[in-house]
Amino acid sequence: MGAWVDAQVKEIKNWTDTLFSLKIQALINPFTAGQFTKLAIEIDGERVQRAYSYVNPPTNRLLEFYLVKVPKGKLSSRLQALKPGDGLMVNKEASGFFVLDEIPMCNTLWMLATGTAIGPYLSILQEGEGLDRFEHIVLVHAVRYASDLSYLPLMQSLKQIYKDKLRIQTVVSRETAMGSLTGRLPDLINSCILERAVGLQIEAKSGHIMLCGNPEMVRVTQQLLKETRAMSKHLKRKPGHITSENYW
Ligand SMILES: Cc1cc2nc3c(=O)[nH]c(=O)nc-3n(C[C@H](O)[C@H](O)[C@H](O)COP(=O)(O)OP(=O)(O)OC[C@H]3O[C@@H](n4cnc5c(N)ncnc54)[C@H](O)[C@@H]3O)c2cc1C
């Protein structure tokens, strides 16, 4: 990680009691869509820092993050309380390999996210670079309640831009909601309900899966894809079909 630079809050959007987007301005070094940086605040004389993924495309000067206030979370609750004009720190250098350059050639790219982990995909899709090589892209956002689908309007506007190339699907686990599948991602894959809904199959020979967010979802989905679809974790030294990022 690089140096810390001062940042100023430009906008805070509270979507629900716990979900919010933070837009800040700071002089950072260029990053690649899909990467994360660290945000920090000094609390009781100590710099408390955590990783957050960029939601904005690298070409956008306003830096956007999508956060959940974690119960008893040290930093997320403080970030939620910020107001426009307040200061914080951001790391100048972005990190992470959850980027398109790390994805091997494939026909269909599946982008699966839980909660705030939709961020990296929104950055990648808003940037729009390096997507020509995929015939289909499937963006799936899984949340607890329909009111947690904060970026559905942006997902829908991306669908307008990419047309048939992009399929978007929302998943809600704790209620039924029109337009969304009901349940948990691994179950919806296991039952083929997700594939039927988007009209594409998850296959090792044609697809690559990106998984981001809740570590339990990542672990269980990865295991399921291994057992039922003969898919394996993608490593530089051993190419496979699954690329993942855990948020905790
Ligand atoms: C690469 C990476 C990118 C990340 N990007 C984002 C992002 O874009 N948006 C975002 O909101 N968070 C993101 N996180 C999580 C973030 O770094 C913090 O862990 C989170 O904000 C909690 O920090 P805290 O200080 O409030 O909680 P802490 O006081 O550090 O408590 C942490 C505990 O809260 C739990 N926890 C952490 N994150 C979550 C969560 N999202 N949902 C439920 N429980 C959680 C874990 O059990 C963890 O042990 C990312 C993490 C990583 C590793």
Task: Summarize the structure in words.
There is one protein chain. Helix content is 22%, strand content 33%. With 248 residues, it is an alpha/beta fold. Strands 4-3-6-1-2-5 form a six-stranded antiparallel sheet, covered by helices on one side. Strands 10-9-8-7-11-12 form a six-stranded parallel sheet, sandwiched between helices. A hairpin with a 2-residue loop joins strand 3 and strand 4. The mean pLDDT is 97. The site of flavin-adenine dinucleotide (FAD) has 21 residues, from strand 4, strand 5 and helix 1.
Largest β-sheet summary:
6 strands, antiparallel
The dominant shape is globular
Number of helices: 6
What would you report as the Rg, rounded to the nearest angstrom? 18 Å
List of distinct ligands in this structure: flavin-adenine dinucleotide
Task: Throw out a few tags for this protein.
globular, binds flavin-adenine dinucleotide, six-stranded parallel beta sheet, alpha/beta, 12 strands, 6 helices
